Amino acid sequence: MMKKTIMMLLASSLTWSVPSLAKNPITDKMFTADPAAIVYQDTVFLYTGHDEDTDNTFYKMNDWLLFSSTDMVNWQHHGPIMKVTDFKWAEKHAWAAHMIERDGKFYFYTSVYHNSEKPGFAIGVAVADSPYGPFKDARGSALLTNDMTTQTDNDWDDIDPAVYIEENGDAYMFFGNLVPKYVKLKDNMIELDGEIKVLDLPNFTEALWLHKKGEYYYLSYASGFPETIHYAMSKSIHGPWQYKGLLNELAGNSETNHQSIIEFKNKDYFIYHNSAIQHDSAIGAGGRYRRSVAVDKLEYNVDGTIKRIIMTSEGITEPAR
């Protein structure tokens, strides 16, 4: 317990506030993408990718960043929590990730490019005793590799992990590009438990995210290209999934669209990325490979469907209490 407390204090001492006047994106000090948020002990922990491309020609992503907030308006940046080379078997590309807590452990699932032993994108998992880290490879090998699925010829079709734990303790990982898939995890959270199953989602591209509200499960995802966010609903995590249509429009000049949906202090939020940083910022203009994480409110209709997201430049202006 003392060790855990010391680590959290040290991590907190390394933070600094991101200047915020309730605006989108949440920071203009660096380029961020692929948000994955969790709520833990009255704090939102937001994990993002880190776009470092200088000439806007392709994704240059070497590490993952952490931000936190207690009110959804003011954000603290805690620096990088991991780099792709922390997975000794990985070669490059710190792409989209997902965080989940179980029994006091924090599991960080990531999309990375495997070395030549098993070429193609793979999913790794790291673990820590604190949401701040330090994180270490939980297996010493990939959780899932490109050769374990055969639905496409692409070497990037096993990306964008999103993990959900049922009330009965069963854990599932959703993932995929072009073909949506999911698989049960063992209780230790670092091994697969059974066959990989394919989902039926119209015009699916990538970026699966599962959340539950009331009696309904919601499966949102990026569709088409350039990408918009669509969603489906079900009363079971196994489906059948009823397609509900468009949730979020094109995010400016970002061809990709990646979402995270959370409830925090009785309010619902839609976290996504765009390319809204202006050319006069200290780091230059955003673009298709220079993205920025933003937050707007999410609202439900009486029948449980979700209202279309309204993206704003103001962002969240009312602190969550």
Automatic annotation (TrEMBL):
Pfam families linked: Glyco_hydro_43
Asked if the record carries the keyword Nucleotidyltransferase, the reply is: no
**Active site, UniProt feature:** 34, 206
Enumerate the InterPro entries for this protein: Glyco_hydro_43 (IPR006710), Glyco_hydro_beta-prop_sf (IPR023296), Glycosyl_Hydrlase_43_Enz (IPR052176)
Entry keyword set: Carbohydrate metabolism, Glycosidase, Hydrolase, Polysaccharide degradation, Signal, Xylan degradation
* Molecular function as annotated in GO: hydrolase activity, hydrolyzing O-glycosyl compounds
- Gene Ontology BP terms: xylan catabolic process
Chain segments annotated as coiled-coil in the UniProt record: none
Keyword Transmembrane applies: no
Q: Write down the position(s) of the site called Important for catalytic activity, responsible for pKa modulation of the active site Glu and correct orientation of both the proton donor and substrate.
A: 160
Signal peptide positions (record): 1-22
Q: Which family does it belong to?
A: Belongs to the glycosyl hydrolase 43 family.
Q: What is this protein identified as?
A: Glycoside hydrolase
Organism, per UniProt?
A: Thalassotalea mangrovi
